[in-house]
Amino acid sequence: MAKDKTIKPAVTKGNLLQKLLDASGCKYASIAANGILSDISGYLDTGCYMFNAVLSGSLYGGIPNNRVTVVAGKSQVGKSYFIKTFIRSFLRDNPTGIVFLFDSEFAYTKEDLEAMGIDTTRIIVIPVPTIEEFNRVSLNLINAYEESSDPTPIMMALDSVGQLASNKEVADTAEGNDKRDMTKQAKLKGAFRTLLLKLGHNKIPLIIAAHTYNQIGAYVPTEVVAGGEGLIYAATSIILMRASKDKDAENNPIGVKITCNVEKSRLTKKWAKAVVLLNFKTGILPYSGLLEFGEESGIIERVGNRYKFPNGELAFEKAIQTSPETYFTKDVLDLLDEQAKKTFPLGKGDDKVTVDELLAGIDSGVVDGGIKIESDADTHPEENADV
Questions:
Q1: Which residue among 50, 69, 256, 352 is the one 20 to 30 A from 169 at the CA level?
Q2: pTM for this one?
């Protein structure tokens, strides 16, 4: 007699699966079909459609609301400006929301935040000199938030992880001992281990600014992200930023072109990138890179020296840059979003890259060899405070 292969319901109360779940005694455990702690329920707008796409796979996405996101780059690349932009977006989208800003660089002022249009009545700025202080204060805040049972959304930001000392480093400096603290990276790793599940459970996004430096003597030019293995493993996304001048027709600097490369992501493809324009007068331009993406995907067609949009309208590039919202209507954005969902998320799209092609790309310099994590054995000059 053949066995009955009928699949029986697995999520009903009282069956073995539920009994085993109850027996685990873990408050974070769940049956996958009922939802998982790490499920993403929302996103924080970055202020740029294409930056949203490379982070989440959608023009309308952005930074996950329960994950660790790292923006990394050298000094003056704009990391702190992006941190402030993310804070403004969070407070705008959450009228009762609260932000905890951990400042290890002594860089933020009330006037600076208000100049960005940020509601400073809902931000707590916490100067943190050491890893231990950051870990202690952040855990105290999260524990108090859990005990309050208040549904008010909160967000955390750290600027920057590279400027955090350790208690041992501070004590050694006071004693005139210039030996390097070989336990610093282990302390950072421990801090992120203790925070990660609590952040996810309470749906708190943590955004971190990290310095980078060039690895001396590397066969493939490599930028090292300061912060060690703990930061690399804890982050859902690491965006490596590089800046260049943006100039007008008269060759005058009008802003910065920031190339945002995905160096690590659990949501989108590695090496995906977006070019974000940061104008000195108006800030981040939301439509940066959409015209190029539309042309690459065939949604927008180049006809001579003009561009043809899906509705048949033709326009010069200067007209599009002057009034992008006129051309990038909701219908056009929806079409581009459908393409982004095929292009950027992991496991989707038609691109197939073999191992040989990947290695050839690295050897030729076309493909970045990837980030290197800072280890206890690394010796390097520390980056100065960034913008």
A1: 69
A2: 0.84
